[in-house]
Every structure is written in structure tokens, then in C-alpha cells.
TrEMBL record:
Domain of life: Eukaryota
Name of protein: Plasma membrane-associated cation-binding protein 1-like
PANTHER family: PLASMA MEMBRANE-ASSOCIATED CATION-BINDING PROTEIN 1
Feature: compositional bias, Pro residues: 168-180
Any Pfam family hit: DREPP
Cellular component, GO, one term: plasma membrane
Region ranges (Disordered): 134-192
Bias kind Low complexity: ranges: 157-167
Organism of provenance: Canna indica (Indian-shot)
Annotated InterPro entries: DREPP
Length: 192
């Protein structure tokens, strides 16, 4: 009986709980990617002009989740959104983005969280091809905020009274929490 246990059952249990093999293989894939970073960077610089329109189109068609990860990649973010990350890398592979093929293969095999270094490297390269969208957005928000600040300064006391009813509209939102107490009333009749 002990012989059967050690030869048949124990190896199966070890397989289920053994992630060391997967982690070691992912580490090996990361190491080989790190060794080829220079070649990938050279190829990227050569194809930069051809890749930019394709990457911008792909990026614009992507979900908001992947857009934020591409702009600011983090290991926890890659772990949480690994399926979206793998799909995006597959799309990069289709447009023949340098370095995306080995990263896609490794991400599919081992998971995005185990090869976060190469994925972050690819996302950094993708970011260099994207147009600078962030600076105009705050510039657009600042004039709007300045406009909001200027309006109250220029308003008369009558306009100030017009603005005060708007906060009065917010208190009706307070009775909504009172509604959850109503379901508590049906409970006592159910007990009776």
C-alpha cells in the first residue's frame, strides 16, 4: 500500500502543487528575452516609421484597461488583466511588432504575471509610438476649471442664489438610503 502511494498518488499531488517548473521556465524565457533586447531595440528603430500608424490604430481600438496598462504598466495590473494583456500582445504579434512573438508565446504558456519584465519592455516601446495625449487633456481641463472659477467671481448675488438651489437638489439623494429600511419592515410580518 505504501509503495502504491509513493509511486502513483504522491507524484500526481506534486504535479498539482508544483509551480516551480512553470516559474523556472518563465524565468528562462525572461532571461533569453533580456539577452535579445538590443536586437529587438535595433529592429524597433528600423521599423519605427512603418509601425507607428499600425500601433496607434491598434491602441485606439483597444479597451480602456489596456490603454492604462500600456501607458503605466505595473506588475499587479498585468496580473489582474492578464487575459487582456495577452490579447493585446497577440495583436502586436499580428502587426509584426519587434519582440512580440517570443513574449506572446511565453505569455500564453506561462501567464502574463510570470513574464512581466518583457511585457513591460514591449509596452514601453509601444508608448514611444503613441501620440502625446496626456499633456493636452490637462490643458483642456485647466481652462475649464479657470472658467468655473471666473464665473462665480463675475456673478451677482442673484446668480449666487440661482446656484444655491443646485446644492438643494442634492439633499433629496439622502432619502434614498431611507428606502433600504423599508425592506426591513416586511421581515417582521414574515416572522408572524
Amino acid at each position: 500500500m505504501v509503495n502504491y502511494w509513493t509511486s502513483k498518488v504522491l507524484p500526481k499531488i506534486k504535479k498539482v502543487f508544483d509551480n516551480g517548473g512553470k516559474k523556472a521556465a518563465a524565468a528562462e524565457a525572461c532571461k533569453s528575452f533580456d539577452e535579445s533586447k538590443e536586437d529587438i531595440s535595433k529592429e524597433f528603430e528600423e521599423k519605427k516609421a512603418d509601425l507607428q500608424p499600425k500601433v496607434v490604430e491598434l491602441y485606439e481600438a483597444s479597451a480602456i484597461e489596456i490603454k492604462t496598462l500600456v501607458k503605466k504598466p505595473t506588475e499587479p495590473g498585468l496580473k489582474k488583466k492578464s487575459t487582456v494583456v495577452v490579447k493585446f500582445i497577440e495583436e502586436l504579434e499580428k502587426i509584426e511588432f519587434p519582440g512580440s512573438k517570443p513574449v506572446c508565446e511565453a505569455a500564453t504558456k506561462y501567464g502574463a504575471s510570470l513574464i512581466s519584465g518583457p511585457i513591460i519592455f514591449i509596452f514601453e516601446k509601444v508608448t514611444t509610438l503613441l501620440p502625446a495625449e496626456d499633456p493636452p487633456a490637462p490643458a483642456e481641463l485647466e481652462p475649464a476649471a479657470a472658467h468655473v472659477e471666473c464665473v462665480p467671481k463675475e456673478t451677482t448675488p442673484e446668480a449666487a442664489t440661482e446656484e444655491s438651489p443646485a446644492p438643494a437638489e442634492e439633499p433629496p439623494a439622502a432619502p434614498e438610503p431611507a428606502k433600504p429600511t423599508e425592506p426591513a419592515d416586511p421581515e417582521p410580518p414574515a416572522k408572524a
